[in-house]
Amino acid sequence: MQALRIEVPGTVDRDAVVARARELGVLGWVRVDDDGRSRLHAEGDAEAVQALVAFVGGDAQPAKVEGHEQFAVRGVPHGSFVISIHDATSRHFDLRLEVDGVMKSWAVPKGPSLDPAAKRLAIAQPDHAIGSDVPGPTRLIWDRGVYEQGGRVPWPEAIDRGHAVFVLHGEKLRGGFALQRTPRGWLLVKRKDDEARPGSDIVAERPEAVS
Ligand code: MN
C-alpha cells in the first residue's frame, strides 16, 4: 500500500482522472483549487498509484494512508443545505442536507458551532422535501447554501454508517463539518480547518435571518 499527494499545474479533467483511478483500483480524491492547480490524494497498490501519477503528470510526494473507500471528486457541490430556527414546543435549529432528492434532517437544539471543541447534539428527523423550509411565523431561515460531500466513505452510505463528513458553503457556516452517530444521538462537530473559530459562538453572534 502506497499513498501519494500529487500536485499538477493546471486544471485536470476530473472525470477522466476518476475513470482512470477506478480502472487502476486507486482510492482517494481529486480537487481543482482556486489557485488553478489540481491536487490529488492517491492510495493503493504502489504500481497502480504510480500509473495514476504517470497519467496526470505533476509532482508526487509521499503521504499518509487515509483509508479511503472510493476515488472521489472533491470541491464540487452535491446539493443544497438549509439551517432554520424553528420556534416549536422547544426552540431548535433544523439542519437539512440535500441527499439523493430529499432533505436529510436533524434537529439541533443548541444550533451549530464553528468551534471544533463544541459537539452539538443533533436528533435525526424524517426526510423532508426539497424547498419545504420557508420563512414564517415560527421559522427563520438562518443559513443556506451548497455543500460538498467529503470523507473516506461514499454518500449516502456514510450517513447509513453514522459518520458523514461535508463542507458547507453558507453565508455564516463555511468549511468542514462532521455528523457522528453515537448511542445518545448524532453529534454535529466543526472540523479543524481554516474556517474553524475556536471559542466563537456563531449562533449568538449572527442571530439574523439570511436573505
Ligand atoms: Mn423543527
Summarize the structure.
With 211 residues, this protein is mostly beta strands.
What's the layout of helices and strands?
Blueprint: E1 2-9, H1 14-24, E2 27-32, E3 37-44, H2 46-56, E4 59-62, E5 71-73, E6 79-86, E7 92-99, E8 102-108, E9 119-128, E10 139-149, H3 157-161, E11 163-170, E12 174-182, E13 185-190, H4 202-205
Parallel strand pairs: 2-5
Antiparallel strand pairs: 1-3, 1-4, 2-3, 6-7, 6-10, 7-8, 8-9, 9-13, 10-11, 11-12, 12-13
The structure holds manganese (II) ion (MN).
Residues 86, 88, 92, 94, 107 line the site of manganese (II) ion (MN).
Question: How are the strands ordered across the major sheet?
Answer: 6-7-8-9-13-12-11-10
Approximate shape:
elongated
Number of helices: 4
- What profile does the largest beta sheet have? 8 strands, antiparallel, barrel
Helix content: 10-25%
Q: Ends: how far apart? A: 49 Å
Could you give the order of the helices and strands? EHEEHEEEEEEEHEEEH
Overall pLDDT, averaged? 97
Q: Into which percentage range does the β-strand content fall?
A: over 45%
Structural class: mainly beta
